[in-house]
Amino acid sequence: MYFSLSIYTKRRLDGKIVIITGGASGIGAEAARLFTDQGAKVVIVDIQEELGRNVAVSIGKERASFYRCDITEETQVENAVKFTVEKHGKLDVLFSNAGILDPRGSILDLDLDRFDRIMAVNVRGAAAFIKHAARVMVEKGTRGSIVCTTSVSSEIGGGRRHGYTASKHGLLGLIRTACGELGKYGIRVNGVAPYALATPLTSHDEETARQVEEEFAAKGVLKGVVLNARHVAQVALFLASDESVYVSGQNLAVDGGYSMCRSVNVQI
């Protein structure tokens, strides 16, 4: 039996062009650093201009660039994809990672304006990027990879974050339908579903981050390790790379078993 080790002896994204949305901080920034370390050139897309430019500069202008984009505006999304293709000639990977969170609250007091905003960013924004990225991949005959950051909240309920949970369920549905259509072009579509972790989305300073980590670690199933942005970025790297060449339509949990065990962790 012949087994090639070449995939493990070279950088995993050599020559790949990648768009990362929400790349100015958190999981997206970690992915930008990790992907470029593995040979990719990345375009960091975010509405946070100063942070995004700083991440790109820290990586180096030969490997990373920044494009400011409000992902709720389709024209801006289309222009971000055009910018990438004009700069690099192609697009191999979309890591659709941008998202926002709503506060916990009762469904009886649901703020529908805030709900609409969350759906616009977390679902509509992702849909717009999938649409325009896939168009380019199809036009150029690129067997690309589309990876979306979902959440454990895409598979389970609870938590009283109604807008966020609804949006992540919707995003997972989008991943599955896009997978079914784009497979004939050799384009893979997957989700990466992290457990709760301390990022700028959930904490605003070091003290809050420490408290968030302690809370989530206490509730988590897998002990002895605290989930961080790098862990999630590493799974996104796997889905972006040719190591996952026959993986599509999946929602790969990075949750230490939480979503599998949560329903049975009830004392009877």
UniProtKB/TrEMBL annotation:
<protein>
    <submittedName>
        <fullName>Uncharacterized protein</fullName>
    </submittedName>
</protein>
<dbReference type="InterPro" id="IPR002347">
    <property type="entry name" value="SDR_fam"/>
</dbReference>
<dbReference type="InterPro" id="IPR036291">
    <property type="entry name" value="NAD(P)-bd_dom_sf"/>
</dbReference>
<comment type="similarity">
    <text>Belongs to the short-chain dehydrogenases/reductases (SDR) family.</text>
</comment>
<keyword id="KW-0934">Plastid</keyword>
<keyword id="KW-0150">Chloroplast</keyword>
<dbReference type="GO" id="GO:0009507">
    <property type="term" value="C:chloroplast"/>
</dbReference>
<dbReference type="Pfam" id="PF13561">
    <property type="entry name" value="adh_short_C2"/>
</dbReference>
<dbReference type="InterPro" id="IPR020904">
    <property type="entry name" value="Sc_DH/Rdtase_CS"/>
</dbReference>
